[in-house]
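Hi all, long-time lurker, first post. I run a small reading group and we've been trying to get comfortable going from sequence to structure in the token notation. Rather than ask abstract questions, I figured I'd post a concrete chain and ask someone more experienced to write out its structure so we can walk through it together at our next meeting. Sequence below, copied exactly:
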Amino acid sequence: MRIVTRLKLAAWVPALMALFIGFALLLSYETMKDSLEEGKAARQIMHGMNELNDFVRTYMHYREDRPKFQFLMLHESVTELLATIRFNSTEEQHILSGIRHNSESMKDAFLKLVSNYETPGSVANPALLIEAEERLGGRILTKARDVLSDALRLESVIHEEISTTQRRISVLVIFLIAATTFPLTVALIGMMRSINKSLAALRKGTEVIAGGNLSHRVGSAAQ
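-- Answer (accepted) --
Happy to help. Here is the structure in token form:
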């Protein structure tokens, strides 16, 4: 192989290495971006559940319309968020399904609690009414706690995915650098040997010509 060709190949190897690494980093960036969006959604769920808990407690204490409407509006917003979230892994989808179920159960219990407050005459025994209200309140808070627990678990899974992606990026970059640097080093060493050999032949030929053999061709054996 001619020296010029080898030099061209040596020049292309770093460019190809940069191209492969850039492509790998681009794919990893997209994966990281999706995971970060999922983590943001999990934190929004937790924030929404904390606010819903506050509205439930406020309504149970004051029995006013404002916290009731605030609960229903926020719950609708959280439900829309849960409907738009999409996850790739089976574990994440399972956790999300549990969050959706507990969220709907929380709303059903809250509406029953509101119904008991607004129509107390439907239960003849006041003691039973109080007991029913306490049970409903406890059920609402329990479901909210379950949602928060699932959201924390979901965020933990997403964080682990981000860490795994970062590790894969590091391993991939190291592998690509090693896979391209070694052949490039071997090629450069071979090229240097070839150049040194050519220079030695040129020097020897020059010496032969300087000795008076003008018919000698550089690079051929002395006559």
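A couple of things your group might point at:
Residues 126-210 form the longest helix (85 residues).
Helices lie at 3-62, 65-84, 90-118, 126-210.
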